[in-house]
Amino acid sequence: MATPHDDLLRVIASCAASTDSFDAKAATIFSFISGLSNPSLRRLLAEAGFIPERYAHDSSEEKLYAKAMDSLVAIALNRIGYRTEVSPERSNSADVTAAWTKGSAHTIVLDAKAFRLSRTALNPKDYKIEALSTWKKGADYASLIGPVAGFPAGSSRLCRSYSLQHHSPDVFSPGLHA
């Protein structure tokens, strides 16, 4: 039986093969993820985040997979009550903005990460910690989010880089759990 992740990969393959614009392809992927039931969305959250090795570096599939992770984060946060927006930009901006308007109102900018399992080096520059702080633009918090296995455990250059930044993100959240 196909999993939601398997289905997502089929949607990405179909989009990559189409002649539609990148924005139209991203909208198709967003629509697919939006249509998932809550149990299927939770399963996709648990399974997603690692770029399939069959995707060539900088390929359409790789870029669409990364954009799918942005959509996944936005949709998951929307389902728990945040107003969310996925950035149309593909670089130099936060991927998702989430606003909580009930009770203690706040806004979070998030950088959704997708990793390749074959790439084991955890280079702090790949996490854009310093850049994330500059992308806040009035938001209350900034956060990195991605699969837990994509972040180092314990002491690492990434954790040191995070803790030494003068304008570091306010929330360091390796993983979005179902």
Describe this structure in words.
The structure is a single chain. By secondary structure, the chain is an alpha/beta fold. The protein contains six helices and five strands. It has one domain: Type II restriction endonuclease, HindIII (Restriction Endonuclease, 3-Layer(aba) Sandwich), CATH 3.40.91.70. 40% of the residues lie in helices and 13% in strands. Helix 1 (4-17) packs across helix 4 (60-79), helix 2 (22-34) packs across helix 4 and helix 3 (38-47) packs across helix 4.
What's the arrangement of secondary structure elements?
Layout: H1 4-17, H2 22-34, H3 38-47, H4 60-79, E1 83-86, E2 96-100, E3 106-112, H5 129-134, E4 141-145, H6 157-164, E5 171-173
Parallel strand pairs: 3-4, 4-5
Antiparallel strand pairs: 1-2, 2-3
Helix pairs in contact: 1-2, 1-4, 2-4, 3-4
